[in-house]
Amino acid sequence: MAxxxxxxxxxxxxDEADIIGSFISFxxxxxxxxxxxxDNGSRDDTVREIKRHPARDRIRLHCDPRVxxxxxxxxxxxxxxxxxxxxxxxxxxDEFIVIPGGIKTYAEQLPLDCSILExxxxxxxxxxxTVAPEPLLAVRRxxxxxxxxxxxxxxxxxxxxYCGKHAIGSDQAKPYQDxxxxxxxxxxxxERQFRSKLQNRVETETTLSSSAEFRDVLSxxxxxxxxxxxxxxxxxxEADGWTREKERLAEIPWVEDTEIRDWYRRRGSAPQIxxxxxxxxxx
Length: 283
Known about the structure:
Blueprint: E1 8-13, H1 20-29, E2 34-39, H2 46-51, E3 59-63, H3 73-80, E4 87-92, E5 95-97, H4 102-109, E6 116-125, E7 140-142, E8 149-154, E9 160-161, E10 168-169, E11 175-185, H5 191-209, H6 212-218, H7 223-236, H8 241-250, E12 254-256, H9 259-267
Parallel strand pairs: 1-2, 1-4, 2-3, 6-11
Antiparallel strand pairs: 4-8, 5-11, 6-7, 6-8, 7-12, 9-10
Helix pairs in contact: 5-7
């Protein structure tokens, strides 16, 4: 009898202690066989939270403190891809996708020639006046579809993964879009997390910009766009940056979206794995 197909999640993380445990639990509950994490030199408790998670048998952790990890995404893809025989979801740890029925049921229903899933991204809007201790309690997301798209793929598809993981190079792409499948992006969760994210971005982008290999081959942006993005990030690190971020969030049209919050509340405040009947799409 043939072995059942395996599906994995890959994510890079750096200073994500506030959300990493929930990320692991969520994708285990979605039915993924392995949660593969690359820690890029976290200075908080991220690694400790990973190692103490109750789903340790599903977790594969690789520590790589080199700055400029965005230029090494194919390296990480090759490192973990032997664990998968079907789908690889290469995500950020602040990105949550509710998969109808879980990955096993959903994958069986996809067209046979589908090799790439293309998804829209919606930003989750926190209540910055009273930021919850658990970011997944946010119940608002932006209401308008943005131009940003992100892809996940079957084993062996990408020949190049661009910085930011919003596009890949491949001559085997068979994209598929499902309006029911989209990313909830928890971009801003607290002032501390927001500033840490920007500091890491500036450090990474500065390193990438000084490398001709990363800048000219792996960058999804041209030199002007990269420079503008870096300048914007530095601007938000100034003293009034958090105030301006709250003002930006306040201007985003939003709708209520409680699915992730309700999952988190069913799971409970302590890291644990849901029983099958409580999983999304479970019975």
